[in-house]
Structure formats: structure tokens, C-alpha cells
Amino acid sequence: MKKLITALLVLSFHLVNAQTRYPVSGKLKLESTKEALVGATIFVITPDSNLVAGVVSDSKGNFTFEVARGVYTLKISYLGLQPYQEELRVWRDQYLGTIILGENTERLKGVEVKRKAPQATVEGDTTSFSSKAYKTNQNASAEDLVKKMPGMQEVNGELRAQGEKVQQVLVDGKQFFGQDPKTALNTLPAEVVDKIQVFDDKSEQSKASGIDDGTRIKTLNVVTKINMRNGEFGKVYAGGGTDSRYSAGGNLNMFRGEQRLSILGQVNNINQQNFSTEDLLGVVGDNSGRGKRGRGGRGPSGKRPSFLTGFAAGSSASDFKVTPTGGITETIAGGINYQDEWGKKIDVSSSYFYNNGDNNTTTRTYENYYLTEQNGQEYNELDSSLSQNINHKFNAKLVYKINPKASIFYLPSLTVQQNTGNSFINSTTENEGAVTNALEQALNTDLTGLKSNQNLMFRLNGEKRGRSLFVQAKHSYDNSSGDKFLSSSTFSRDTSSLDQLSFLDETTNGLTGSVMVSEPLNDKGLGGFLSYDI
To answer: Does pTM top 0.70 for this prediction?
Structure first.
């Protein structure tokens, strides 16, 4: 027993350490001038040729990436220089020192390069990637273009830049489809993109108050080509296949300088979702593969299937659900994004999403036992579920410039989710034609979730630099309500039945406020601020 516990502890220790990521850093210099090498591409590749990290050297030639313990290949490339490659063994935090890259004279011999777009440039904390340096297929989206850039990866459907999750996408410095990067990049065609800028943006409160609260949001800014900022562009697609499979959709973008309108929509029954939804109820599952549920009715216990366990009156929201775990999902979805400047004082941006997903899953199981204690025993199970999830999501941002020193910021958001689900399981165990165990269970759920946030801010700058007044009021409301009904009948040595109804009503309602005053202490930029929260 002691040996088993020791083995489990050692295994747990190794698993924890395997997930730990360690920073590895270094500096790049040019051999001929000893100057810092800016914009070089650094890749970290596993022995099976998978890219695990990719970064670009900054304005001082420095680079940093994070990887788990292991053996990798470090590759560094820069146009016109000899490619650099070495084996990299990571066991803890490492500093690789200064790496010198020399000119690739053989490669450039007899070749006259008149102009070549740099892959990346670094200005302060912003890394810019030129679209001219990356080739894409015809009709490619901005997302296809971004994925070709170093340091960009898609992990479990989420876009990551320099190892961090991208939380918002701007277009020419303004919000585009709220904080939904997947939608924003899928809506824009690659041909309208001039460059992609990657940086850590400040929170809305920091930008409004002028006082940094330390919050950072990994952001992509899509800079469009000048000749594409006035006009219409978009795409339409449709396709069909066997088993009545279909997929169709499209998007339309109408740009008129500061006024921009984008519309998109899609319908399909191939489990495809081109933009994300906000799951307030925890009912949206992963439909990439069928998860096997616990079986009822087999053997003398006749235990409940796993999707009904924990059922009790007054249980939490996580129990009030029929979660899709496979099958076929029919999707109807659409969205609209609007940006404009109303006169010289009002700047507005807003977006709305609608998503309707119907998931249908049916599983049949048959088992026949031979050469065991249950010789001649047969097990039959029919397991089916139907779940419909409807999601509405709206957010907006309005900035009113009262005068050059005073502004009002208003950021509302609203999400409504409706979900209905039905699950049914019927199973029997027979031995030599006689039923020894049977189970029939059904679960019906009806849920509604509502989440609302209102954020109102006012900022006044004083005559003296660094002097300001900031006032903020925030209201948040979150409600989950619904009911579920369970009906269960079990036959084994005895027959038992259960009918149970449960209700859910959880509400969070909060109002907060804050006042912040800042005052310069001297002429060298030093200052202090006083904050009061309600």
C-alpha cells in the first residue's frame, strides 16, 4: 500500500511539473555591426515537428517565450541572414545569452533585392506584421492570414498571440464585433488587411480615467488598406453532401469612412460554429465527439446514468441541464456590427449576435456475454437526447465629448440565453430470454439565463497636466431560472419509480460606484491619486 501511494505521489509530481511552463530568453545581434537585431522570427519546435512557441525580437533584440520541460529545436530566421538552429533542453528558467547572426552571402550572391516587405516590425510594446509578407489562398479570411504569422496559434478553438489568449480585435483602432475575435477575423477578407498589430491594451476604465489599473488585454488591431476603407465587400458560400448535410452562409461589409456596417449569417447541420456564444447556463457542450454516459439497468444495481446523478431539489444551475456530447447540431446564427461618428462629439460602436443550435444525439448499445459468470446474458440500451439552445448577445460603447477636457463613456451589454432539453434512456438486461433488470428514465429541462451590465463613466481633465476627476457607476444583474422534471422506473428484484420536480431561481444584483481624483506633485510627471469606492 505504501509503495502504491508513493508511486501515485511521484506520478502526480511529474504530471504537475510537465504542465509548468518556464521562461526562456535571449538577445540577438548582427555580426557585422553588433547592433541589436529587430524583428527576427524565433520558433520552438518539438521532435515531432510541432510548433509550440513563436515570437519576434523586440526593438532591443530581446526575445522571451515560455515552454514546458523537454527537448526542442530552436530556429531563428531573418531575411538576408544565415538561419540559426540549435538543440534546446529546458528544465528551468533559462537565459540563452547573446546569439550572433551573420549575413548569408551565398544566398544573396547575384541577387538584387529592390524591395522586400519585412515580416514584422516592433515599435514600443506593439509588434506589427505586414500582410505583404504572408501569402494566402484566394478568398481567405483575415483569420487565415493571422494564423500564418509567427507567434499566432489556435488552441482549442481560441486564438493565442505570443502564448496569451486574444481577447479582442480592433479594426483601425475601433471595436469590431465586441470582444469576439473569432467573428471579427472571419468576417474580414485577407485582401483588405494592410497589417496586423499585436499589443496589450489597457482596460476601458484605465483609458477613461487616465490612471493605469494594471489590467492588460491581449489585442489585435487590423489596419485596413487605405483603398478599402470606402466600399462594399463580402462573400457568400453554400455546400451540400451525403446524409442531407448542408452548410451555407455569408457576410457583407459596407465601409464609408468612419461609418461601418457588417452583417453575417450562417446555417448548417455539420456542427460548425463560426463565432462564439456566451454560455450563461453551462449547457453548451463539445460536439466534436460522443462522450459515453453511465449506463442504467445493467446488473442488480440499476444505477442512474451519469447525466441524472446529483438530482435533488434545490440543486445548483450546473445540474439543470442536458449537455450535448456529440450527435448532430443544426445551427442558425447571425450578427451585425455598427460603427459611426455622430457629428464631432459622439463616437458609437455596437454589435448584436443571435445563435440557435439544435442538438440531437441517439446511441444504441447491445452486448452479449460469453465465457463469463454472466454467460448468456444480453444487454440492450437506447440513449437519446435533444437540446435546443438560443443565445442573444448585445454590447455597445458610446463616447460623448462634452468639450476637449470632459467626456462621458457608456458601455452597456446584455446577454439572454434560453435552453430546453430532453434526455431519455431505456435499458434491459436479459438472461436466457428472461428480463432480470430494466431501467427507464427521462429528464426534461427548461432554463433561462439573463446577464446585464451597465457601465457609466465621466472624466474631467484639469487645466494643469495630471489633474483630473473620474466618476464611475456600474450596475450588474445576473439571473438563472428554470425547472426540471425527472421520471424514473427501475425493475430488478423489486420495482421502484420516482417522479421529481425541481425549480431554480438564482439572482445576483449589484450596484457599485467610485470617485477618483488625481493631482500632479511636481513638474517632472510625478503625481498621486485618491480613490473612493461605494
So the answer is: no
